[in-house]
DNA sequence: CTAAGATAGTTCGTAGTACGAACTGTACGG
DNA sequence: CCGTACAGTTCGTACTACGAACTATCTTAG
């Protein structure tokens, strides 16, 4: 029996805290969390529906609707793939780019503030452990580091 | 400028990872995440609607519907408050208790596995920092430590 | 070259989530 | 005892998510 009581609860509570900050920044930008996630993913580079679905852990039918709504708001565009007549790539519009950047910056700012009370070395240690956990579990890159 | 690039992204990605495990355990128990959260909260003790709403960061109308659906499945019960004729407390049924315990145990197990690769002292350090962040930000207790 | 099967996306029906506004009923203070 | 504050519910709307059924394109075997 590994005596790690509390690790699980700490992870759950921390993740609820982070999600609540994320959701708050979303709503301040007129986004819902799945919409923001989509913008962040295609912000890195345009993607096909068939790539996006597993990255966002959605079925293709769910993704279709999400892209519909985000496209209707004018933040992304569906572009036919030249290589494959069946495929479509989703890319940011200029407005989508601005919104994605603003959202990303503000979220980063809010979360950085949140851990500002920690001593810098502890903060770095914490970030590196978190990164390690994440990278050992094949999490799709859903929120990039600032370049 | 505090040079903590990466902390924010690490937090976001970690929280998406934890949420995906949480959601997976939910669906294995026939629950949705908000339903599981409700069970975990009232698992500690029965609560009024007016207490639950802020704990779960929901408007009262949203909570009403959530409790409806969970009650329809037979996992919680609405009980009139003897002290206040307007108020209602939400409590687990026997089946709800079993489900909440099973869900909690399995989630704890899955998340503990997830960090099992870390050396024990690092794991403890990580948990204590996470706890510290959480407790500095007034997060409602949405997932208890094992008793 | 073409028929069969695989792949990419969409549409549709259903259920759950979340909100605000409007509503009912109880409690309480003046 | 009346007015107001409070506790919950209901209703209409929008978003999220799924699976099944569908269209259209690509690929491959014969």
What is the element layout, followed by pairings?
The structure is a homodimer of 147-residue chains.
Chain A: H1 7-28, H2 33-44, E1 47-48, H3 49-55, H4 60-72, E2 76-80, E3 88-92, H5 94-114, H6 120-135
Antiparallel strand pairs in A: 1-3, 2-3
Chain A binds a DNA duplex (30 and 30 nucleotides) through helix 4.
Keywords summarizing the entry:
homodimer, 147 residues, mainly alpha, Arc Repressor Mutant, subunit A, 3-stranded antiparallel sheet, 6 helices, DNA-binding
What does this protein structure show overall?
The structure is a homodimer of 147-residue chains. With 147 residues, chain A is mainly α. Chain A has a single domain, classed as Winged helix-like DNA-binding domain superfamily/Winged helix DNA-binding domain (Arc Repressor Mutant, subunit A). Helices cover 62% and strands 8% of the residues of chain A. The first copy, chain A, has six helices and three strands, in the order ααβααββαα. In chain A, helix 1 crosses helix 5, helix 2 packs across helix 5 and helix 3 packs across helix 4. The longest helix of chain A is centred in the first third of the chain and has 22 residues. The radius of gyration of chain A is 17 Å and the shape is globular. At the A-B interface, helix 1, helix 5 and helix 6 of A face helix 1, helix 5 and helix 6 of B. Chain A binds a DNA duplex (30 and 30 nucleotides) through helix 4.
